[in-house]
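Hallway conversation turned thread

IA: we were arguing at lunch whether anyone had actually written out Exodeoxyribonuclease-3 end to end. Turns out nobody had. So, for the record, here is the sequence (273 residues) and right after it the structure tokens. Reply here if something looks off.
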Amino acid sequence: MLTVTSVNVNGLRAAAKKGFLPWLAATAADVVCLQEVRAEPDQLPDELRDPDGWHAYHAPAATKGRAGVSIYSRQAPTAVRVGFGSTEYDASGRYIEVDLPGDGKAAGLTVGSLYLPTGEAETERQTAKYRFMAEFRAHLDALRERVEGGAGGHALVCGDWNIAHQEADLRNWRGNLKSSGFLPEERAWLTDLLDSATGWTDVVRRLHPGVDGPYSWWSYRGKAFDNDTGWRIDYHMATAKLAAAAATAVVERAPTYAARWSDHAPVTVTYTT
């Protein structure tokens, strides 16, 4: 069994003050992927930079206080890579991946933590988001070919993809038809990625077909959390054989608004690898 959790922490130091550390101490996850860490490693206290029982790897953004991704793994990886070979984006704190070894029975696994840019419709930010998406798609294609070809094994890219794929993935879809995160071009990009020929699978949707949500992000404004007016933008995207081994997928939604330590909730999947 392998359990992987992904969560946008909305500032790791802030999350630690609100309950992230007790959650980390209690989690049964073998791998935890973090996004929007918003800190240099030397700005993190020891319990966040190098927590006991974990091998921790961080990819901060060159722009201080922005973005940043991390991976905690209970097993030592055989390789760690920051970025995906992009001149424009590799220093932006948006992607890190690790290779975890197999155990003789199960094949090795590459796990990535992704924080895809937010974008803003009809602005340069949206154009930059599209540039990122185009480059990252090439990386996803190469990663899939590597693990399913000569290298063998599986691949899993977790994170905040900042795109709601279908109407079932956000409560107020009618009011967001022209909003970044639900634009036709973004949704078509995900549709193409998830085409059966590509070998990538949205694991949570596979295990929760035909339902609204389960949402993973709720605005802090108004009653969005209380009314479950959310977006499902945090994904586990897995190659075919790993996706087929997914047994359970849970969004760890806080019991109350006050108990939240991020505006996102952890998305946890257990795989029977």
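OS: looked through it. The two ends are 6 Å apart (CA to CA).
IA: good, adding that to the notes. The domain at 2-271 is CATH 3.60.10.10 (Deoxyribonuclease I; Chain A).
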